[in-house]
Amino acid sequence: xxxxxxxxxxxxxxxxxxxxxxxxxxxxxxxxxxxxxxxxxxxxxxxxxxxxxxxxxxxxxxxxxxxxxxxxxxxxxxxxxxxxxxxxxxxxxxxxxxxxxxxxxxxxxxxxxxxxxxxxxxxxxxxxxxxxxxxxxxxxxxxxxxxxxxxxxxxxxxxxxxxxxxxxxxxxxxxxxxxxxxxxxxxxxxxxxxxxxxxxxxxxxxxxxxxxxxxxxxxxxxxxxxxxxxxxxxxxxxxxxxxxxxxxxxxxxxxxxxxxxxxxxxxxxxxxxxxxxxxxxxxxxxxxxxxxxxxxxxxxxxxxxxx
Length: 307
Ligand SMILES: *Cc1c(COP(=O)(O)O)cnc(C)c1O
What we know:
Blueprint: H1 2-11, E1 17-21, H2 26-39, E2 42-46, H3 52-56, E3 62-68, H4 80-89, E4 93-97, H5 102-105, E5 115-119, E6 133-137, H6 139-147, H7 149-153, H8 159-169, H9 172-191, E7 198-200, H10 210-216, E8 224-228, H11 232-241, E9 246-247, E10 257-260, H12 271-276, E11 283-287, H13 293-305
Parallel strand pairs: 1-2, 1-3, 3-4, 4-5, 9-10
Antiparallel strand pairs: 5-6, 7-8, 8-11, 10-11
Bound molecules: pyridoxal-5'-phosphate.
């Protein structure tokens, strides 16, 4: 969030306007509500699975297109090149949250995005033992953030944590290869399972934006899967029955982590708002780790049997 807030406070001023996905990492959404209240920077939230919706939201004061792809937690895909083309036509800056994909799978800067943010807490660190953020992009943006927003708001990384992130990145490629292959195998298995009502994974042909993902994620589709087991009771029973997987709210570590959104991260949110955001009663967010895939399949299968 330090990287995200630094990017936004560097690029947008009071009276200017942002267009962002309607469904994305919830704290970014909440932060954009906060900057409207506190600083008079408005955001229009659009269905970002169709790039044309960014065009429809443009105002004379639009300064920034925010992109997150795949999104947290529904792994929705935005066509990065299409959004960049629109932004360039209108002199608008683009920033992409590339946390779920990582640079191993997807490189938004090469697709024309002006700046990229990562929660290094997730795959870059990779071991669920640090919190950190990264902002990369043109010298102009990054230097302005370093000497402005970062300094003023105090979002600076501690040296020991920076060292841990650098150490984590040394094995990023190895880890991502395994995250990608484990997740694809598990997504296919879940898709065939009678207790699973829906599986969301950009690597499946059934994903509505699979073709876009295939084009812009040359390294693979990542380790994040959404699955719907149908009800709050089924979601809780499943989540409480895993043994190898860990029940927790973070993601992107070497260990498989899952959470039941309706009873965990989204429990404080009124049911109707939660459903409007696409967080259904039985939604499980699964961060597939690097364990032996057969062990993972066995654990998930025995937990599905408990529903
Ligand atoms: C976790 C996450 C963040 C926030 O990261 P922190 O390191 O917890 O501040 C931002 N974007 C996405 C997509 C995330 O998953």
